[in-house]
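User: Structure tokens for this complex, please. No commentary.
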Amino acid sequence: MRKLLVLFIFFFSFLCSFSQTKLPEVDKSPMDVSYYPGNYPILKIQNKATEPLVARVLYSRPQKQGRKIFGELVEYGKVWRLGANEATEIELYKDVQIAGKKISKGRYTLYALVYENTWTMILNKDTDTWGAFKYDSKKDVLRTDVPVQKTDESVENMSMWFEKTTSGMSLIMAWEQVKVSLPITL
Amino acid sequence: MRKNLLVLVSSVLLFSCKEEEKPADNNTLSKIETPVKVLPPVTHFTVPDHSPMDLVYFPADYPLLKMAGKTTALPLMRIIYSRPQKEKRKIFDGLVKYNSPWRLGANEATEIEFFSTATIQNKTIKPGRYILYCIPQETKWTFVLNSNLYSWGLEQNRQKDLMQFDVPVEKNTMIIEYFTIATEKKSDKSAEIIFLWDDVKTKLPLSF
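Assistant:
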């Protein structure tokens, strides 16, 4: 009986470890997507979209998990991938203006150079990349500084979304008690 | 002694297959089965999606290869999909109906992008971005490429179907909890896209 059980344990662990090495696991920092206009895919199939799709951001969402984020996990003065895993991707479906500069439609990587009171937002042409480990400033398309704001409550899961503004939209990023807004003119 | 062993067995099960011990969550059910009408909140400050989104590249893990300096070529393909969980439900011919279009995941329609010209079952596919869904049956799945991009996956616009490919259904020896898409390399320029959920496995071979 005991032998059988041991065999069973062995066999089962083998099966499980086999499956786990072969198949991609579920990410601890899951990927998510935000659109402008918000929830565009749902609006689209309901025929309720009043504006065409302008932008989409693909990012992975790390959690705070009791850690101090800004100044520690995300160090000041270092380029950060704005999330986890793959570098954050922003795709523009039409030409826009950011900080007075024309940005052509297309796929970009978005990084942030994080400080206590300002973030330098970086739009870079090198896509499909992991983290900021191979960040190459020669491929920058734009750098612009935005002020750091504080949120009332602590944000556990890093969040990004678009909000409508009078001149177009803003990309909002929030984590811990930090919130940053990147204005985009349409 | 026997009791001890049982505890040991169950803890091994728990640790080695922890994904299978997910409590049922009513939200998930309503999310997956929700009719099109309900608008979920925009994602700010929300908890992560219950069916998390994921990326699949061919070559597999392309961004990591690129970071490690192991490739300088462009990727060949990328899939973006969301990963629902079985959560003790019967999936095929249950949650996923036979003979009806299925989004191959959850939430948004599954997106597939070819960065080079691809060939599937002798049909040539131009580089670009498409929606991929399937019509499952017991013994075969029909994969469909469609051009209705950036749409939620509950409703397919069949008028925008571009091509379709039939593949046989295979059985897994084990139950897969999270719907999984992966690529298996056959050569530098060819692969199988593998789809796994519950006890079902299908493969879509393609080349570049």
